[in-house]
């Protein structure tokens, strides 16, 4: 049985109250095992980043629990969370988030120093990662001298410096062209499969889907495992948005065909003037 | 973290330098008035330092030259001569008078240089300039320059007119300039007969000045004897006390300005590095290290400002002596050290205000593109 690295149980995060209440994450449960590469996808504003922040101990949930290596994150104080973030979680962000004043090698070593690792050990590991991620020629460069792909490789190396069991990545390919994005995606897959780490990626990038073990779809605060459940993409004929036929809440049968919609509003518009939205034959 | 915070400063070296110069300027503001009063006080006591003599005798109860305007009791002068260990006594006059043409008079202290050749030559050796002969006056160089006077020009002192024979250096202060006349001229000017308001006493070789001063104080009524160091100390402190409140106010103002600059600088640096603090926080930097890092930045900028301020004092002093000779400025290393330390302490205290801003940075900023 695969070792469980991260688990969330009935995770809820609400913002605001009363009429302004937003259910960003509404009762999400998930498990991520050693070696799993999990994608969290969903429309913009669906709560993907909020979920990732709670999984990484950056945001406290309204209720529910997050467990990392059988230790509960929720309920811990800020100091304990900071310690767990530095030593047991590797973060990769869309905007790279490298520290601009220090070099590639110093950026990579930074979390190691936060976790109290000796400089000698941290440098040794940084050298290994610099070599593995093909950054040797850039080790003394400042981040503003790097290409987007190089920056993201530095961010990945930084995430790995403390040898964490899990990597949480937020849109890691979002700022990269297709070639560099693919390289980073393959790198994250290698980290999951060869290093045996759990990797959770929040992404819109469809190209990564093929390498994922699980694709979790977050919409309206709820999560579904698209790889485990049947799904079939269809286009909303009104707005053109992609909608999963299996879970679409708005649909109509017209002219012997079933049309699905992203919302009631699109369905009503369609019913007012169906011919306007029917595909030309 | 410390390394990162210092390197972050180096990236913005011009901002750092500007902030440090602001702190340096605030420190200099606090130091400047102290230096002016110290310089003035130094000028006032230069005369005491240069005057040959082992013991100064003033009127009973007087312990500084500033108050020594009253005439000494003749019995007391006689009694001083009789004290064992006294080798010689020179009378001289020290009185205030108005100097300069009508409408442009300036208050100055007039010193009557003793006429005795041995006293004159001792004075000349000590001061490096020629003592005035009868009918002549020596003015401090800045005073002569301010009134555009050349040697040979006539100078009005009180109701009399004298010929400028030369200028003295180191005897000018804005509050207390000293001018020099021949003793006889001074006596006539002030109608002092053969009286005196200050006695200079010379000790025998086997008698120490402090022992002699103590002996005169014990044995002579209605006179007050002081060793030159004690008189110098009293006059210097009196001059400093006159400006004490003003110096204190300016020091507080300087420190307050330095504190405001530090708060502003720390806010600017914190907001410029808000995202980087958020990154550090997200990656697991503990609050203590974040606080230390922000304080380290403030400490480095403040320390740099203090060092710049301290280093500037020396060329500034030389420059002021050259360009504004009328103002005596003397920066004190001890005051620089004390005010520098106070500025650094205040800077770190001031940095506590923006520190709350750093500590409350939301690590969720790292998810913004």
SSE layout and pairings?
The complex is a heterodimer of chains A (281) and B (369).
Chain A: E1 4-15, E2 22-33, E3 37-41, H1 48-55, E4 63-68, E5 71-72, H2 78-88, E6 89-92, H3 104-114, H4 119-132, H5 148-160, E7 166-170, H6 178-193, E8 198-202, E9 214-219, E10 222-225, E11 233-235, E12 242-244, E13 250-254, E14 257-261, H7 264-272, H8 274-277
Parallel strand pairs in A: 3-8, 3-9, 6-7, 7-8
Antiparallel strand pairs in A: 1-2, 1-4, 4-5, 9-10, 11-12, 13-14
Helix pairs in contact in A: 3-4, 3-5, 5-6
Chain B: H1 2-11, H2 13-50, E1 55-59, H3 74-82, E2 86-99, E3 106-113, H4 117-127, E4 136-140, H5 141-146, E5 154-157, E6 160-168, E7 178-182, H6 183-190, E8 198-203, H7 209-219, E9 223-226, H8 228-242, H9 244-272, H10 274-282, H11 287-323, H12 333-359
Parallel strand pairs in B: 3-7, 4-6
Antiparallel strand pairs in B: 1-8, 1-9, 2-3, 2-8, 4-7, 5-6
Helix pairs in contact in B: 1-11, 2-8, 2-9, 2-11, 2-12, 9-11, 9-12, 11-12
**Rg on CA atoms of chain A, Å:** 21 Å
Named CATH architecture of the largest domain in chain A: 3-Layer(aba) Sandwich
- Total number of strands of chain B: 9
Might you state the CATH topology name of the largest domain in chain A?
Rossmann fold
Specify the structural class of chain A. Answer: alpha/beta
CA(first)-CA(last) distance of chain A: 52 Å
- State mean pLDDT of chain B (0 to 100 scale): 84
Report the strand count of chain A.
14
Principal-axes shape call of chain B: elongated
What portion of the residues of chain B fall into strands of 2 or more residues? 15-25%
DSSP strand content of chain A: 25-35%
Summarize the structure.
The complex is a heterodimer of chains A (about 280) and B (about 375). Chain A has helices at about 50-55, 80-90, 105-115, 120-130, 150-160, 180-195, 265-270, 275; strands spanning about 5-15, 20-35, 35-40, 65-70, 70, 90, 165-170, 200, 215-220, 220-225, 235, 240-245, 250-255, 255-260.
